[in-house]
Design goal:
Helices cover about 30% and strands about 25% of the residues. It is of the alpha/beta class.
């Protein structure tokens, strides 16, 4: 049987190797992975059939580089994994299709409210989806006012750049934070500051990039991962994100949480969303949306990425795909761990 050739971007991302395995180790038919990453030593390189180092997603040459690789390798489909890939490729998805390369990215108008936290809040402010109280600021004076308005110093307040990936730039403001203790005793991932310490740093520039200042959300972090077409959720599941290390969740537990699935269906419908979406909640409120694949909790008969690829290539009917949803087990859990790859320098030449 002819292998399906998938161009998979950002194979060095935290879930990259697991994604490659999910796409190849299902036992249905052979799959070849043409992996790309800006890091020539990305771990996913060693699990891909072919690998290409590529420019960063923000590089103007990135889309043409991906198209060149798709032509050269005669791929059947392109699956971008990172938000940094989705945003530059999204405006070109019709061009890629005309070249014969289906690319699993949402329309630009669907992706933009996911990429910017400020745009997300504005887009959903009239929806039934619960939102945290937030302010968007770019000066120290506005920053202080927003923090105080949200209850500091009696309450913890947090902030992050309006456009950022993962936990980059996320900080918690808590009155009375001992800076000496933070410097000498805390791990690098501890992100607690005082308002005064942040003002000192932010005050080094008259105007900084937009920051989203938000009430601090307490409770378990719940995420919904979905595969959608034309605004309809075709497959989806809900999981926790726990045991955070360096901004990454290390433990996941599937949840039977129909109220969050209902929110996800409403969000996908309002965005008229296509393909993969990751929606994060905390304290019952919408925290962020990622326009990409996320860390799936795979199971032998509920493999969303592979099923979505088959759907895109016309290898599974809409009816059979939707029927797969009943296979989801709410008892499924997952532990993320570190691993290593060994090679000789000669292997890289």
């Amino acid at each position: 049987m002819k292998p399906i050739r998938i161009l998979l971007t950002t194979v060095g991302c935290p879930g990259g190797v697991t994604m490659i395995r999910a796409l190849k180790e299902h036992g249905e038919r052979p799959v070849q992975i043409i992996g790309t990453d800006m890091n020539p030593l990305a771990a996913g390189r060693f699990f891909s059939d072919v690998f290409y180092p590529v420019p960063a997603g923000k590089d103007p040459a990135y889309p043409d580089t991906i198209l060149h690789i798709a032509r050269k390798e005669k791929v059947d489909l392109i699956l971008p994994q990172s938000s940094s890939d989705v945003m530059p490729l999204s405006p070109l998805r019709d061009d890629f299709r005309q070249e014969g390369f289906p690319i699993m990215v949402p329309k630009t108008e669907s992706a933009v409210p996911c990429d910017s936290k400020s745009a997300m809040n504005a887009f959903f402010e009239r929806s039934p989806v619960p939102l945290p109280e937030t302010r968007t600021v770019n000066t120290v004076k506005a920053f202080r006012k927003a923090v105080l308005d949200l209850g500091y110093p009696q309450k913890r307040v947090c902030f992050k750049p309006a456009v950022s990936k993962g936990s980059r730039g996320f900080r918690i403001l808590e009155a009375g934070t001992d800076r000496l203790n933070m410097l000498l005793q805390k791990r690098i991932e501890d992100t607690t500051f005082t308002l005064e310490a942040c003002e000192e740093i932010l005050g080094q520039t008259p105007r900084f990039p937009d920051l989203l200042v938000s009430e601090f959300l307490e409770g378990t972090e719940i995420t919904v991962d979905c595969y959608c077409r034309n605004g309809e959720v075709l497959l989806g599941f809900t999981k926790t994100r726990e045991a955070m290390k360096a901004g990454l969740a290390m433990f996941f537990r599937n949840q039977d949480a129909p109220e969050y699935m209902d929110y996800a269906r409403d969000i996908a419908r309002r965005l008229q969303y296509d393909y993969f979406i990751n929606i994060q909640f905390k304290g019952g409120k919408l925290m962020e949306i990622n326009p990409r694949v996320s860390t799936f909790v795979h199971q032998e008969n509920f493999n969303i990425p592979w099923t979505a690829v088959k759907h895109e290539l016309g290898l599974i009917s809409h009816k059979d795909l939707v029927r797969m949803q009943k296979n989801l087990r709410s008892t499924r859990q997952s532990v993320r761990y570190y691993d290593q790859v060994f090679y000789d320098s000669d292997d890289m030449e």
